[in-house]
Amino acid sequence: MSGKVVLYYFNGRGKMESIRWLLTVAEVEFDEVFLTTRDQYLKLLSDGALMFQQVPMVEIDGMKLIQTKAILNYIAEKYNLHGKDIKDRVMINMYSEGLMDLMEMIMMLPFTPDVKPKLENIQTKAKERYLPVFEKVLTGPIYLVGGKLSCADVQLLECTLMLEEKFPGILAGFPNVKSFQGRMTQIPAIGRFLQPGSKRKPQPDDHYVKPVMEVFNITLPLP
Ligand SMILES: N[C@@H](CCC(=O)N[C@@H](CS)C(=O)NCC(=O)O)C(=O)O
Q1: How far is residue 26's CA from residue 75's CA, in Å, rounded to a whole number?
Q2: Which terminus of the chain is more solvent-facing, meaning fewer CB atoms within 10 Å of its CB: N or C?
Q3: For residue 58, what is the enclosing H or E element?
Q4: Closest residue (by CA) to atom 2 of ligand 1?
Q5: Which residue from 38, 44, 55 has its CB within 8 A of the most atoms of ligand 1, so it is best to mutate?
């Protein structure tokens, strides 16, 4: 590998958090450059580092990668977390996409003026649309696809932890998902990531939202 992996994003979860999780499980060390000013962002733009003028951006293997899913797929492929064949991979991608849809709804909450109806919608969708899928798949198997740890497992763990932060007890009706969560947290790298002082980011607050608004020159409410 040429050089250390460097993540360019805010000092908060957002779209980068799943990348942090996956690198952690792959046991890849990374540094982080936190965007705090618009000038930093403009400099990245003028350097041509952000193809679509967006972050996350990840420097890895001499490349500057953008687009969250492309970055996740690269890491998953490189570290053998993307199944054994194309049939495994398409299942992994289907689970991942569903989980990303759900996590993105939670991710947008700090930028949402009227949170209550959104929260209710997320809870209903989590209980009625998403969690039942994983509860069923995990009747028996230890991992979601092909008896082998994949990026979809990592995202399911991340998502269930996010859900429990918002809706404590939400997994009560999903015992297989709850056991899965317990098993995943036994993985040493994950155990370390869950400890205070790791590179895992806390739930978003003003310290995260303010720089985002400043860097992108935006005012609430978002469209
Ligand atoms: N499809 C892109 C979307 C990235 C994205 O929306 N990034 C936001 C920050 S989380 C951004 O850079 N927004 C500025 C803009 O779109 O102008 C991805 O998944 O990486």
Answers
A1: 8
A2: C
A3: strand 57-60
A4: 67
A5: 55
Measure 66 CA to ligand 1 centroid, in angstroms.
Answer: 9
**What pLDDT, on the 0 to 100 scale, is given for residue 223?**
55
Structure ipTM: 0.99
pLDDT at position 221, please? Answer: 64
State the distance from the centre of ligand 1 to the C-alpha of 1, rounded, in angstroms: 27
Could you give all domains of the chain from N- to C-terminal order, each with its CATH number? 5-79+193-215 (3.40.30.10), 86-187 (1.20.1050.10)
214-217 contacts at long range (C-beta below 8 A, 24 or more positions apart): 214/36, 214/37, 214/38, 215/10, 215/35, 215/36, 215/37, 215/38, 215/40, 215/41, 216/38, 216/41, 217/38
The pLDDT averaged over each successive group of 10 residues in the chain (223 residues) is: 87 98 98 98 98 98 98 98 98 98 97 94 98 98 97 98 98 98 98 98 95 91 60
Q: Which is nearest to 68 in space by CA: 29, 41, 107, 118?
A: 107
Reduced to 3 states (helix: H, G, I; strand: E, B; else coil), residue 66 is strand
- Per-residue pLDDT, 166: 97
